[in-house]
Design brief:
Elements lengths: L1 H15 L13 H11 L2 E7 L4 H10 L3 H10 E7 L5 H6 L7 E5 L5 E6 L4 H11 L6 H9 L5 H13 L3 H14 L2 H4 L6 H6 L6 H8 L9 H20 L2 H4 L5 H13 L9 H11 L3 H10 L6 H9 L1 H4 L7 H11 L5 H16 L1
Parallel strand pairs: 1-2
Antiparallel strand pairs: 1-3, 3-4
Helix pairs in contact: 1-21, 7-8, 8-9, 16-17, 20-21
């Protein structure tokens, strides 16, 4: 039964996922890439991935298909995408690749100029590549510039991120927060400094986020829409900890905190841009403790919820309905009937959820 279910879910996941790429990865080997790099006067960019690597799939699905990412890489590089355990195994060993994804940039003689591991958001990835190729952004040079008192947005961003990537998170935030505190209110809201929020602010209780919300109407016009979208994203992230049941499982639910989030979202009219209202309804229903009523309300709100919020509840069924023998069979049936409508990534994860529920 479990093998049949797993095969079914895998098949559904594969049919619901299709990747397109604006970034043109060429179907050639490294020697051919070297020749083309000389002909086209470009560097060589190699994406080393594996079949089982989640961050690799994330880059392929969410980053490389973006037009501005493709425009950048296609104009600057001869791009290769190699499986480090198959056709790219020998080259990966030669370049000392040990983590996935790893991105190598080589010159026209095949010498490594840049070695980057891990997944990044699109803009951060492009910025990282540009900095790595710029001699003014080597670790030694950035340290010299910073210690001499230079405080340009570009240097602060790159220097802080260099510590983050080395897992020295506290030093990275020390640089960012010190820089933020040194700015005037106008500078904090400038387009040049928006990276402070988009790359280093992830919680709604962060003073940087609270400043942004309080002054959202004063943000530089070039970033006003992006700022509102980012505020919406962080409020949604906060509400997701409620909708997934995490806050309730950890016994961290605080009515006043929740009501403040709701008030902020409504005052910013974010509920007009995103379907927050059914999320509010579900959270408030669950807070009352009637799981049966919550499940019935959830089913009735299916058409109102964003797809990701709908799937979030399904994926957290074991957390939302613990010790609920009377509800478990109904939840299992509902998840099974919902599978054809879900995204491939969620289908695979729901296979584990179903197996756990069926053991109860």
């Amino acid at each position: 039964m479990k093998k049949t279910l797993a095969a079914f879910l895998l098949g559904m996941a594969l049919t619901t996922s299709g990747l397109t790429a604006q970034t043109q990865f060429r179907d050639i080997d490294f020697n051919e890439a070297l020749q083309l790099s000389q002909t086209e006067n470009k560097l060589i960019f190699i994406d080393f991935y594996t079949d089982w690597c989640g961050p690799c799939r994330k880059m392929s699905k969410e980053v490389f298909p973006q037009k501005h990412v493709g425009d950048f890489f296609n104009s600057q590089f001869v791009c290769l995408k190699l499986n480090a355990e198959k056709e790219g195994k020998e080259l990966a060993q030669k370049f000392g690749v040990k983590a996935y994804p790893t991105f190598i940039i080589a010159d026209q003689q095949g010498n490594v100029k840049v070695n980057i591991a891990g997944a990044f958001p699109a803009d951060a990835f492009i910025a990282k590549i540009k900095n790595e190729l710029n001699p003014d952004f080597t670790p030694e040079r950035m340290k010299q510039r910073y210690e001499s008192g230079e405080r340009t947005p570009e240097l602060i961003d790159a220097y802080a991120m260099s510590f983050m990537e080395k897992k020295n998170i506290s030093k990275g935030y020390e640089i960012i927060n010190g820089y933020f505190d040194s700015l005037t209110d106008e500078q904090k809201l400038s387009a040049a400094n928006f990276f402070i929020y988009s790359r280093y602010t992830f919680r709604i209780d962060d003073p940087k986020f609270q400043f942004l919300v309080k002054n959202i109407k004063k943000v530089d016009a070039a970033k006003s829409e992006e700022a509102m979208d980012y505020v919406q994203k962080l409020y949604h992230s906060a509400l997701s900890t409620y909708l997934s049941g995490y806050i309730f499982e950890e016994k961290k639910f605080n009515e006043a905190d929740y009501q403040q989030i709701k008030k902020d979202i409504k005052s910013l009219k974010l509920d007009k841009k995103y379907p927050f209202t059914p999320v509010f309804d579900l959270i408030e229903c669950y807070a009352k403790g009637d799981k049966k009523a919550f499940f019935e309300l959830f089913k009735s709100k299916k058409g109102e919820l964003d797809q990701k919020d709908y799937e979030l509840v399904l994926l957290n069924a074991t957390r939302l309905f613990p010790n609920s023998p009377e509800l478990t069979p109904e939840v299992i049936r509902y998840i099974r009937t919902s599978l054809p409508e879900l995204r491939g990534s969620s289908i695979m994860m729901l296979g584990r959820v179903l197996m756990t529920l069926e053991k109860e």
